[in-house]
Every structure is written in C-alpha cells, then in structure tokens.
Amino acid sequence: MATDSANPPTEQSGLGALKRHIPFIGLTGGIGSGKTAVSDQLARLGAGVIDTDLIAHQITACDGVAIPFIQKQFGAEFIDSNGALDRSRMRKLAFGNPDARKALETITHPIIREETIWQAKQLIEQKVPYLVFVVPLLIESGNWLALLDYLVVVDCPEAVQIERVMQRSKLPQNEVERILQAQASRQERIAHADMVIENQSSLDSLKTEVFKLHQKILQIHKDHTSSS
Asked: Which one of 12, 48, 129, 193 is most buried, by most CB atoms within 10 A?
C-alpha cells in the first residue's frame, strides 16, 4: 500500500525556507506511468532527486521507523512475517475505509516530511543544480503546487498503466483500476503541468525527452541564480 506522498513540508516546517537556494521541480504521474524511469535518468544527469514514495516504502519496511506506530494503531495482523507493513492487507483496508487511510497518513506523513527536508538539505549542500520531488499524489495533495517552480507530469494511456502495474506488482486488473480511480485523472494532472513527458514508446525516446527537460531546468536554475 503506497502511503503515497505525504502532504508537503510547509514554510513553517523548513522546506519553504530552502526554496530560495535552488529550483524546486515536481515530478508526478499516475501509477505505472514511469516516474521512476524519468527520475532515475534525471539523477544520472546530476539532479538531486527525492522520492517520497520510496521514503514511504523505507519507513514501512522491516524495522522501519513507522512500523511500531502502525502496529499499535492497526494491530499485529497488519505487520507481515518479515516485520514489514502488510501492504496488501493495508491497501484493502485503506481504500475501503477513509478513516483508516487518514490514521495511516497521520503516522506516516510527518515521518516522510522530516526525511524529505533532511534529504533536501543534504542535496543542497552537495551543490546539485536543482531538486526533483517525485510525488505520486502531488496534484491530489492540494499543497505541493505552491512550493514548486516547475511541474513535470509523466503520462501514458491508462491501458499501458494497467498492463505495467499488473506485470510489476502482480495485482489483478480490477485492483489496479480501483487504484487509478482513486488518483487524479490524466486530464487533471496535465492541466497543472509545465511539461508533459509521454512515456509509451522506447527507452531511448524517453531518455531524449528527459535530456531536453534537464536542459530546460538548467536554464531555470541559471535564471534563478541570476535573479537571487
């Protein structure tokens, strides 16, 4: 169960104060759209990448800092035999019970927020040219947009998303479709985007698009630096 992207760190929690140092780029897209492929390529090109979904997985893995709180709130049956969050069981509960989803977010979001700020500070100290925040539910959060200088949406047809997720996560089609229905539509995401990367072709084609994006963001960084 993706705890998905926590609500973003706000001005008072520290991330807003860091924004004056470096451009903030948001990267989002529906499940199976290929956000990781894009963010991995940006990292290879020198960007600082912070993946809030990866953080969510880390804190709910075996010995993750959120596990004791989840067990206390939901019971031992939501922790698997390895000591990690039973994501399948939690997914079924959270999608059918808004109160349970809220309770999970109350546990995980502050931890994700704290780790996001820490990683941002570390990357800024490393002098990366810009920060990329990979946030699965960026549009849905309602708060991230105010913190960003530029928003990139990775997009592909829903049929492609469903096929990818079924192959990757071994989920049945109806469950993938239910996840898609809980997310913003393609049209909603694209309406907010400064740039859309189509990811339904070859990896080489995707790399070309990501390189163009990188060059565009470097120009944003140059303008950002000259105006500060």
From this structure: 48
Is the Cβ–Cβ distance between 136 and 5 less than 8 Å? yes
Contact criterion met (CB below 8 Å) for 73 and 85: no
For residue 51, the 8-state DSSP code is E
CATH class of the structural domain 11-222: alpha beta
Give the N- to C-terminal CA distance of the chain in Å, as an integer. 41
Tens of pLDDT, residue by residue, the chain (228 residues): 444 444 554 443 578 888 777 899 999 999 999 999 999 999 999 999 999 999 999 999 999 999 999 999 999 999 999 999 999 999 889 888 989 999 999 999 999 999 999 999 999 999 999 999 999 989 988 788 888 999 999 999 999 999 999 999 888 999 899 889 888 999 999 999 999 999 998 889 999 999 999 999 998 878 767 765
